[in-house]
Amino acid sequence: MAEAKAQLNHLRISPRKVRLVVKPLRGMKVSVAKFQLAHITRKPTISLAKLLDSAVANAKNNFSMVEDNLYIKEIIVNEGATLKRFRPKAFGRAGTINKRTSHITLVLNEKVPGLKVEKEEKETMKPKEENKDDAKKQNSSKAKEDIKKSPKETGKKDKKGETPKGIKRIFRRKV
Predict the structure, then answer these.
(1) How many CB atoms lie within 10 A of CB 34?
(2) Cα-only R_g, the chain
(3) Cα separation, 141 vs 139, whole angstroms
(4) Is 18 a residue whose pLDDT tops 60?
């Protein structure tokens, strides 16, 4: 049984704070965990959501696993390197300030072992991506044509009789 892993090193949040967010996620289904991370108002949630997305991408690409079948097997939060800073204290002494970092390891596993993405699904996904690229090229060429035309050529003016905001001069004399 294959496990998909993702790792985040040197996160500049103390492990104690990260563990508060990580603890309820253990054993959760991936879709539920993403929903939980979106609604928790703590600093580590942004980094953990990216890490979870990375682990899901690893599972899909490396092991052809189905996202709906994945759950969080384990999340380990270890202490990373501590940055030491100093602050002046009374009587000429220096007090240390420890800026702690975290190393997070995320392991995903399958609920139902052996469920794989079929090859036909992968092949059908490729043409869709190509169509998106063609659409982007067409949209970018239209945008370039619009940029080339000056406001005098288009004859477009806003309500006050001035040119659009992007072209309007910043330092214009008042008449």
Answers:
(1) 17
(2) 26
(3) 5
(4) yes
Structural domains of the chain, ranges and CATH numbers in brackets: 4-115 (3.90.470.10)
Separation of first and last alpha carbons in the chain: 77
Angle at 134 between CA 133 and CA 137, to 5 degrees: 90
Burial 81-110 (b: 16+ CB within 10 A, else e): eeeeeeeeeeeeeeeeeeebbbbbbbebbb
**Taking the complete model, does pTM exceed 0.85, yes or no?**
no
> Looking at residues 30-36, what average pLDDT do you find?
95
Cβ count near 79 (within 10 Å): 12
How far is 78 from 161, CA to CA, in rounded Å?
62
What is the rounded (10 degree) CA torsion for 11, 12, 15, 18?
-70
Q: For all residues of the chain together, what is the average pLDDT?
A: 81
**Tokens describing residue 55:** 């682990």
Higher pLDDT, 172 or 92: 92
SS3 22: helix
Task: Tell me the three-class secondary structure of 53-89, residue by residue.
Answer: HHHHHHHHHHHCECHHHEEEEEEEEEECCCEEEEEEC
